[in-house]
Amino acid sequence: MAKEKKDALDEKEEKKAKKTEKKDKKEKSDKKSDKKSGGIAKWFKDLKIEFNNVTWPKPHTVMVNSGIVLGTIVISSLFVGLLDAGLIELVKLLLNLAGNQ
Q1: Which SS3 state, helix, strand or coil, does residue 1 take?
Q2: Does residue 34 contact residue 42 with C-beta atoms inside 8 Å?
Q3: According to DSSP H, which parts of 1-58 are helical?
Q4: What's the pLDDT tens digit per position in 52-74?
Q5: d(CA 59, CA 40)
Q6: Which among 4, 14, 22, 45 is most buried, taking Cβ atoms within 10 Å?
Q7: CA 32 and chain centroid, separation
Q8: Could you tell me the pTM of the whole model?
Q9: Residues 94, 96, 97, 101: is their CA dihedral positive or negative?
Q10: What is d(CA 45, CA 11) in angstroms, rounded to the nearest whole number?
Q11: CB 82 within 8 A of CB 67
């Protein structure tokens, strides 16, 4: 039974190696064609490759992170607004005290 598992793992590794080999060959041929093609075509090919390499977040993750950002903005705005209002009142109080003397 252990031998069967080992054989299955070996087969998986062989398949991965073949896929990697094919991918490497394709990239080499792409590089050759990139040298021949113009700058804009190369840019779009590179862009496509980069988009395939991006790990895009799930919609739920985006919503949670957006909620955290908006909540932080609201809390920060309230803090700065209250601090501003308090300092304005402090300046008014100081001006009234200075004006009464």
Answers
A1: coil
A2: yes
A3: 2-36, 39-53
A4: 888 889 999 999 999 999 999 99
A5: 32
A6: 45
A7: 31
A8: 0.48
A9: positive
A10: 32
A11: no
